[in-house]
Amino acid sequence: MANSCDVVVIGAGFAGVTAARDLSVEGYSVVLLEARDRAGGRTYTGTAFGQEVDFGGTYVHWTQPHVWRELQRHNIPPAVPLGIEKAYWLADGAVHAGSLEEYQRALAPLAARCFADARARFPLPFDVRAVDNSEIEKETIGDRLDSLNLSAYDRDVLDGSWSTLVHSHSEQGLAQMVFWAASKFGDWGAFFETAGFWPIEGGTKRLLDAVLGESRAELRLSTPVSAIEDEGSGVTVTTRDGERVRARSAVVALPLNTLADVSISPALAEPVRGMIERKHPVRSAKLWARVRGEVEPFCAFAPVGKNPLNTVRVEHRHGGDTLVVCFASDAAAISAADREGVQAALRTFVPGIEVLETAGHDWVGDEFSQGAWAHHRPGCLTTAVPRMREPHGRLHFAGGDIAPMNVGGIEGAMESGAIAARDISAALADGSY
User: Fold this and answer.
1) Most buried one in 23, 104, 159, 283, CB count within 10 A?
2) Quick one: CA dihedral 420, 365, 37, 242, positive or negative?
3) What predicted TM-score, i.e. pTM, was given to this entire model?
4) 263 within domain boundaries
């Protein structure tokens, strides 16, 4: 087991695995350190109800170049989801029901108003600093909702449409929401399809294993890191067990909310340090429910804070029953272990639905994630996040939390890891490192 290498990669989520693969196949010696006893980070294909399900990040799309290239290379198709026939939405204190098309007709003009400025704010979505967005960076999601002067019904329809992504109206920055829309032609519906609709056939682990299978990096599991030091002439990474790994450069591919637990020296400059110390505010949950019988495929939406479950969708059939995926904007509002609580929340939309089993993973309580995907606080997206992507001496940061385009997703993680590997490879090749 080597204790010196060309590059040490910290974190074996999709960003770290991609960076380690890309660098190792170029011939560099790479050690990949992962705190958990598995690779995958905030993606996790586990077992529930007698079959494999994705407890964390799940969805991909053919418009995402890094993910799609890997899926095509490894002959892994997206799984075709069940067609949704019925929609329920909680608005102005009542549950409304109709076809999915009727729900979308109610939402479309509201989303168009909300994101009318998306392309003007981010005319070059691949460069968030192309124009000055200092004013919108002061705003929260709640500020935008208030500015639209919507009726109670319309406000709840709009708020319910993004409630999967929102934990706090007052802490999450408006800029990231507008940026997401801008990255998909200014169309909120297009963003939602690319971000939350198409799983991977065989689960995210199938893609992860394909990338790992090409890697020549040495993977060390159950190896959390306590300190990272850039000494100028090289990098020393110290694990919690006191082991030291010496490298010419490092990729730090850890979730944003865990970085404050790692000693990094020299200290990172502002505004990066401040963003790490404050952490991002998303404390959402994803859980699964097996419900009795083959229920009509449906989706359901509730505004933030008005039902323990905020987004629900029938996802699979399973042995004569149905698997329903559920998202809660506040993980503290409901537990995957509380079958009766999940059933009560689902019955808000579908009276009489019977929940047989539930399952999930506590990403908020997990010390190696401390939250879900990142949605940045006001002032971070166009300042601290791009700064964090720049080299910090011999340290390069990567991850879906700070991706240039697809912030918070598998595509963003792979994109970020590939960029870090590219930049380090160039520096190694020209003798800078």
Assistant:
1) 23
2) positive
3) 0.97
4) yes
* pLDDT the model gives residue 371: 97
Task: Note if the bond before 81 is cis, omega within 30 degrees.
Answer: no
Q: Would you say residue 189 lies in a domain?
A: yes
Is 36:222 a contact under the CB 8 Å cutoff? yes
Report how far residue 288's alpha carbon sits from residue 327's, in angstroms, rounded to the nearest whole number: 9
Q: Percentages helix, strand, coil for the chain, rounded to the nearest 5?
A: 35, 25, 40
Cβ(362)–Cβ(298) under 8 Å? no
Query: In this structure, what DSSP letter does residue 60 have?
Result: B
User: Does residue 269 sit in the same domain as residue 312?
Assistant: no
Pair (327, 260) in one structural domain: no
User: 166 and 289 share a domain?
Assistant: yes
Q: What 3-state class would DSSP assign to 228?
A: strand
Q: Is the pLDDT of residue 352 over 80?
A: yes
User: How many whole angstroms separate alpha carbon 433 and alpha carbon 417?
Assistant: 18
Helix axis angle for 14-25 and 410-429, nearest 10°, is 30
Output phi, psi for 301, to 5 deg: -140, 140
| Domain encompassing residue 218 | 4-43+203-279+374-429
The dihedral built from the CA positions of residue 272, 278, 281 and 283, taken in this order, carries a sign that is positive
Count how many domains the chain has: 2
- Other Cβ atoms within 10 Å of 109 Cβ, number: 12
- Residues constituting the chain: 433
Distances (CA, A) of 74 to 78, 384, 396: 12, 35, 28
Contact 175, 382 (CB under 8 A): yes
Percent above pLDDT 90 for the chain = 99
Domain annotation covers residue 61: no
The residue written with tokens 């791009």 in the block is 386
Rounded distance, CA 15 to CA 92, Å? 41
